[in-house]
Amino acid sequence: MTPRQAKEEDIPAIVDLLKLSLGESLTPKTISFWKWKHLENPFGKSPVLLLEENGKIVGVRAFLQWRYLINGENMLAGRAVDTAIHPSYQGKGLFTKLTKKLLDQVEQDGFQFIFNSPNNQSLPGYLKMGWERWGKLPLKIQLNPFPKKNKGLSKPDWRLLDPLIENIENSQGLESEIQTKLEKGFINWRYEHCPIVDYFWISDQSTYLMIFRLKKSRVGTEFRIVEFYKTPEFSEFGIEQVNQRLKNKITETGANFISFSGLQFPNSHLKLGILPIINQGPLVTLRNLNSKASPLDLPWSWSLGDLELF
């Protein structure tokens, strides 16, 4: 079986293979979700390889395109996502074969590194193929021991943010910490149009934008702050306002605890209690390709939104 490039007409068969191989316990597998992720991404279409036998797709491997920015310099990366091998073909090394072939391809295309958040089952395989552990994302946690009853949140009107989002995406510049490049349309694509998660926002519509989601788990409802963008005009008044609005929204949602990136918290001006930052976020691994320096040594400023599984 020789790997080949995926085409748009392959998408229904790819989705069927993902359902068969992985199920739908974590995220739904649909044609619209695949297109949103791999075709509509502002960073560009995902490189996707397939394995086929007798006209049937038996393997798929995709790297979601991503761009980072540091000191004004663009870095092209890929996120190792959707991979599946047909149950009848598992245990034959096809996952490794597809992944190595795609690594060779994207290295030639100028990708500088690949990143992902593997689970315990897939981690050993990635480490054997040259991935390295960066570690778990630090988290700032605030407990809400006496939550009020959740009243529910109404669907947000993202159109109110159009001028602010344009300003945020245009004002990103010479930050010394590496962060996701805010390509034109990225914020709306990633958060407003995400087909599997509802995201909400807190904003004065002029100087800051906080994006969050509610995630239910065995330990209660998590108020997850996935992004907090600020413009140069963000002031002391904005700091006071955003903290009060955040406090009100936490009360309104009845969340049991609040989470925020521990890499971003020190410079955020957010008041999230006295608990220390803990390394309990997603595990991040990196595979160097063309990067001049080891990706492990870069001054990362990942948000929770960067590393969410989707």
CATH class label of the largest domain: Alpha Beta
As for the number of domains, it is 2
Total DSSP E strands: 13
Structural class: alpha+beta
Helix-residue proportion: 25-40%
Give unreliable regions as ranges: none
What pattern of helices and strands is seen along the backbone? Answer: EHHEEEHEHEEHEHEEEHEEH
The description of the largest β-sheet is: 8 strands, mixed
Determine the CATH topology of the largest domain. Answer: Aminopeptidase
Tell me, rounded to a whole number, the average pLDDT. 93
Summarize this entry quickly:
This protein has 310 residues and is α+β, with helices and mostly antiparallel strands.
Structure description:
The longest helix is centred in the last third of the chain and has 18 residues, at 236-253. The protein folds into 2 domains: 4-135 and 283-290, Aminopeptidase; 139-267, 3-Layer(aba) Sandwich (Aminopeptidase). The protein is an alpha+beta fold and 310 residues long. The model has no long low-confidence stretch (mean pLDDT 93). It has 8 helices and 13 strands. 33% of the residues are buried. Strands 1, 2, 3, 4, 5, 6, 8 and 13 form an 8-stranded mixed β-sheet that branches. It has a 5-stranded mixed β-sheet with strand order 7-12-11-10-9, with helices on both faces. The chain is globular.
